[in-house]
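Memo subject: From amino acid sequence to discrete backbone structure tokens
Keywords: amino acid chain, backbone geometry, structure tokens, three-dimensional fold.
Body of memo: The sequence and its backbone structure tokens, given next.
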Amino acid sequence: MSEDKSSKDNPPTGWAAFAIGIGGVLIAIVLRVSGLIPDWSVVVLIAVFALVAVAVHAFPRLEELNLRQLSIRLREVKAAEERIYAKEQSVQELMLTLADLSVMDSLNVGRLGPSGELLDLMRKWRERRLEKILDLVSATPEQKANLQRFVPIYRAIDDAYALDLPAPDRQQAADPHVKKLIDQFQSEVF
């Protein structure tokens, strides 16, 4: 906070400090009048309440609290908060990279294994898991689209291989999509 703030800029702490100060003076006077504390205690009690009032008033602008050798540097706390935010972004970037690997892995898993209804069921399950991962990392729509950039290519390859044609014809139908896949990989590797 800026150092030129006045009590008008933060009325709740100003009023609280004023109330503490006046309340402390009144408590000290009542205790002295009733004979519960000696004369010198009145001065000490008023000084303590005055110090508390000043602390309450100054707390919003406090930058360092030093209690003997135990010091809490509020500027350092703010810097730590900024580092934590930067690490949060790094963690999100890491999670997006892992999600990217997961998408690629899920597109390749099962290609040599199950077929038919089981394959479709596994694909739906993986797609839901991928959506959950993308939601957990708070991926933007652009990031989601980027992470799923291979999905349409693989679907087209799968559709070509699922055609009711002889093997060479299925391969020929898949070749343009395989070429797209190779081009996509090359554009990201080189």
Summary: The CA atoms of residues 1 and 187 lie 48 Å apart. The chain has two domains: 11-62, 79-189.
